[in-house]
Amino acid sequence: MPPLRLDTPVKFLKGVGERRADAFARLGVHTAGDLLRHIPHRYVDASSVTPLASARVGDEVACAGIVITKAVTPTRKGLRIFSAVLRDASGALECVWPGQAFLDRSIAVGQTLLVSGPIRHYHGKQMAPREYVILSDAGTEAPLEPGRVLPVYPATEGLSHRAIRGLVDRHLDQALGLVTDELPASVRQALRLPGLAEAYRLVHRPATQEEAEHGRRRLAFDELFDLQLTLSRARALARRTRSGGIVFRSPADLIAALGASLPWTLTRDQRTALNEIVGDMTSERRMHRLLMGDVGTGKTVVALFAMLLALENDHQAALMAPTELLAEQHARTVERLLQPLRIKPEVLLGKLTASSKSSARRRIREGAARIVVGTHALVQESVEFRRLGLVVIDEQHRFGVEQRSALVGKGAAPDVLLLSATPIPRSLALTRYGDLDVSVLRERPPGRGSVRTALRTAAQRERVLDFMREQCEAGRQAYVVLPVIEESERADLRAATTMADELAQRWPGLTVGLVHGRLKTDERDRTMRAFREGEVHVLVATTVIEVGIDVPNATIMLIEHPERFGLAQLHQLRGRVGRGGNESFCILMTGDRPAERLRAFAATDDGFEIAELDLRERGMGDLIGARQSGGFELRQARLPDDEDLLAEARVQAERILAGDPALQRTANQALRARVLARYPRAVDFFRTG
Question: Most buried pick, 166, 308, 449, 519, via CB within 10 A?
Answer without folding.
Answer: 308
